[in-house]
Amino acid sequence: MIKNYLLLVALLISTVTFGQVLVEDFDYGTTAGDLTAVSGGAWVQHSGSTGPVAYVAAPASLTMAGYPSSGIGGHATYSGTSQDVNRAFTGISSGTVYGSALINLSAVGTGNYFMHFNSGGFRARVGAQDDGSGNVLFGIGASSSTLTYGTTPYSLNTTYLLVFSYEIATGVSNLYVLSAVTPTEPATPEATNTGSTGTTISAIAFRQSSNIPAVAIDGVRIATNWNEIMNNSSVPSLSIVTPADASVFDPGTSNVDVTFTTQNIDLMIAGNQVNVTVDANPTDADTTSPYSVTTMDGGMYNVTVELLENNMVVDTKMVSFSVAAITQVTNITDLRAGTIGEYYELTGQAFISYIVTEGTRNQKYIQDGAAGILIDDVAGTLSAPLNIGDGIIGLQGQLSQFGGVLQFVPTANIPGAATTGNTITPIDVTVSDLLTNGETYESRLIRLIDATFDAGDVGGMFADNTNYNVTVVGGTDMTVCRVSFGDEDIIGSVIPSTHVNIIGLGGEFNGTRQVLPRYASDIEDALSTEEFGTTSFSMYPNPSNGSTVTISSASNNAKDVKVYSIIGRQVINTTITNTLDVSGLQSGVYVVQITENGKSATKKLVIK
């Protein structure tokens, strides 16, 4: 995926700084909208896909007399539980980082943080809570989400200037709440907190979550001392706007634009200019923004940007970024053994077992002969039409994880299905199997056999985003049946009281193993679908490394046996009494369907 960063005129206006690391006045014109869009990419989403942070169009600035960023442009506002955004700046790795913002709260809840510094970890987390009397207490956290709150009550619908800081060497974060500009740093902060030390700070972030206040925010300033928060400077300087330091771009990125701004200097005067050096390449003198770095060979790139006044260097900024390499793997087992955050190409064919049609994450479950994985495609990168049963080849993406579930985030589109109409046969799994070997079954289509729902749930109706405990028949092993697909017909169907098999995707949430049924038909009456049960016959040896397998039952009558590969291809169809010839099967996992006297059962067979 090629990512180009363009510096828009509005962005130039909003990023003008005077010796500070960053000044954000939210001066993006007279059209309101999603902040990430109207800012031209200066603000980027890093979490959540709905409920965007909004830009309230100019003229709508928050004001405070004497504050340099007062009364300019519009402002930002948010109060929800989805999108989080950040704006990057040149990293600060020593001393103290100061941030400030004009804020006005119209409502406040039980308390949570809504703004923070960011880089290798969240620092100086600024939050607010109700004091129990309808007033506001402001607080700060360091590297923990637990905040220390001040004791001074502040009013809703009133503009305050918050100044927050993080001392890198000591981990101390302080918060000041000002009703008027103060030229020097007060001796006593409103609240203080201490956490992790040594974190380089390179972004300011707005956070949405439960219990955050309804906030209007404006005039964000980042600096390395109190004076530069409260005053403008006339010193010539430059700022690198994009990319953020240590950014990693997708494999195949062909160029990256380094955008920068200059302050307090006239570049039309001879001897005033910007020079850019990439790695050990000769300096490109007298350049303009954006400066395009060609990245066809991938790897790491170190960019130095120098500002010259009268042919003398007066400011230097550096940024490093890389283009990720991609590792080829032939199957999902090898993909799952990869490293979180790294990029891979799945060269073997994988089959789509389910497509999640609700929500905005464009998720798809895929599996091959031995493993499965969940595709999480928020960006909609896979735009070619795909259906359940399609086989796909050449999928590229980044390995990630959420709630313990391994995910694959696509970074390139594919032409479409390599094959269509493939049948995915569920693997028979007991509750004990799922609890013991859950990683093996994660994101694969399974049939959980011999289970019952809790007595307190039976007779009710399945609801979306709800967990139901299921227990092995005749035992104590228990796992979770989670209903996650809210637009399918399982919602509103009756929870049975009978002995059931549950077809679904193997799942997990923070260590708790789950089965995720898709349709009402995925909840099977075990007495009708497996009438003489897997305990009524034996199949051995299993696993097998020989040429035959013995299948016996109480009656030992003739048995019709069908064997399917894990993707549903029939590989054996025969009638036996006891002995099944498996000499023609390759190593792998198979599903064996046995029918005797009109009654059927299925069982998993492993060939070594």
From TrEMBL:
Keywords: Signal. InterPro entries: DUF5689, Secre_tail. Residues 363-523 form the DUF5689 domain. The keyword Signal applies. Pfam families: DUF5689, Por_Secre_tail. Residues 539-607 form the Secretion system C-terminal sorting domain. This is T9SS type A sorting domain-containing protein. It comes from Kordia aestuariivivens. The lineage of its organism: Bacteria, Pseudomonadati, Bacteroidota, Flavobacteriia, Flavobacteriales.
